[in-house]
């Protein structure tokens, strides 16, 4: 079966940021306020337990979760899974790796990987990624971009070190290299841009991973103190929806997320090559990357 591309403006790239913010914010809320009351406002993002194993960040157990942006324009439209980032965390080493998978990559079942969110929901995406990478993704986070832009604005923006000039009318990206404080619309434009790069979607996917790291670094650098932490936590707690996830799970995820120094997070593009039509296939280097990743959540030698 085949699936047509949707317009570029419908590409969702915001979920990685949302995943890190929610776990960090809810952890802070738990510590500062006691048990947070979730989903008291409009939902920005959803956290779902998808794995078969319990969350137990023991020193010998890596932890995996999926940060997914879908291109649905409403809650009734599941959308394609167009921003795909599998994150492995090694609790003992306090290190992590983000694997950035281009949306047009061929899945183990033969279709483009991004189709499975529309066909089989979040669990369908997770099943394909588990088969591809030889891992067990325990939790997944998903969001659409209007909610993302509102969230970024309410938390005060993100500081991003733009790696190269980005000038693209389609996405709205207009950045020079260097540190840029981005509001929600700018962060979305940064993550949507593929026309500023020779390899298009590959660099775009890597930039989405960069945004994850930038979000965590921004929060840690602000060190807002008790008042700021309470405000941030309250905002996040009102806008998260959970499925098969307890508040204790959220606390543990948050504590784990806050323990990772952004400098110890690797951002790795999954190696792919072209195939028929617009599909991409995993290159010969990909199986080695996946084995390295599955072993301890860390890719020691990126391709």
What does this structure look like?
It is built from eight helices and 13 strands. It is globular, with a radius of gyration of 18 Å. It has one domain (31-296): Aminopeptidase (3-Layer(aba) Sandwich), CATH 3.40.630. The strands form four sheets. It has a seven-stranded mixed beta sheet with strand order 10-1-5-2-3-4-11, sandwiched between helices. The chain is 39% helix and 22% strand. Residues 1-18 and 20-40 have low confidence and may be disordered. Helix 3 (145-155) packs across helix 4 and helix 4 (184-192) runs antiparallel to helix 5. The chain has helices at residues 15-33, 115-133, 145-155, 184-192, 201-222, 225-238, 247-258, 286-296; strands at residues 45-49, 63-70, 81-90, 95-101, 139-143, 158-162, 166-168, 173-175, 178-182, 240-243, 265-269, 272-274, 280-282. It has 303 residues and is an alpha/beta fold.
């Amino acid at each position: 079966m085949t699936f047509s591309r949707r317009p570029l403006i419908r590409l969702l790239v915001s979920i990685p940021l949302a995943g890190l913010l929610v776990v960090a914010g809810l952890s802070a809320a738990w510590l500062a306020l006691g048990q947070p009351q979730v989903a008291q406002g409009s939902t920005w993002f959803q956290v779902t337990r998808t794995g078969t194993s319990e969350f137990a960040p023991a020193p010998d157990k890596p932890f995996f979760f999926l940060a997914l942006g879908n291109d649905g324009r409403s809650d009734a439209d599941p959308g394609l899974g167009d921003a795909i980032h599998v994150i492995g965390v090694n609790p003992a080493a306090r290190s992590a790796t983000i694997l950035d998978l281009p949306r047009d990559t061929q899945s183990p079942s033969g279709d483009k990987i991004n189709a499975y969110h529309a066909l089989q929901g979040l669990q369908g995406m997770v099943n394909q990624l588990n088969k591809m990478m030889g891992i067990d993704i325990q939790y997944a986070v998903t969001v659409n971009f209007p909610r993302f832009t509102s969230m970024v604005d309410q938390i005060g923006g993100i500081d991003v070190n733009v790696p190269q000039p980005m000038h693209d009318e389609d996405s709205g990206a207009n950045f020079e290299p260097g540190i840029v404080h981005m509001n929600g619309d700018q962060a979305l434009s940064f993550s949507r841009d593929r026309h500023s790069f020779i390899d298009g979607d590959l660099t775009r996917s890597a930039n989405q991973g960069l945004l994850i790291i930038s979000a965590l670094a921004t929060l840690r650098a602000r060190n807002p103190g008790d008042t700021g932490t309470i405000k941030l936590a309250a905002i996040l707690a009102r806008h998260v929806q959970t499925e098969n996830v307890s508040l204790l799970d959220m606390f543990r995820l948050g504590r784990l997320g806050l323990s990772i120094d952004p400098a110890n997070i690797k951002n790795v593009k999954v190696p792919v090559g072209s195939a028929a039509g617009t599909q991409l296939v995993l290159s010969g280097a990909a199986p080695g990357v996946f084995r390295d990743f599955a072993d301890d959540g860390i890719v020691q030698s990126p391709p």
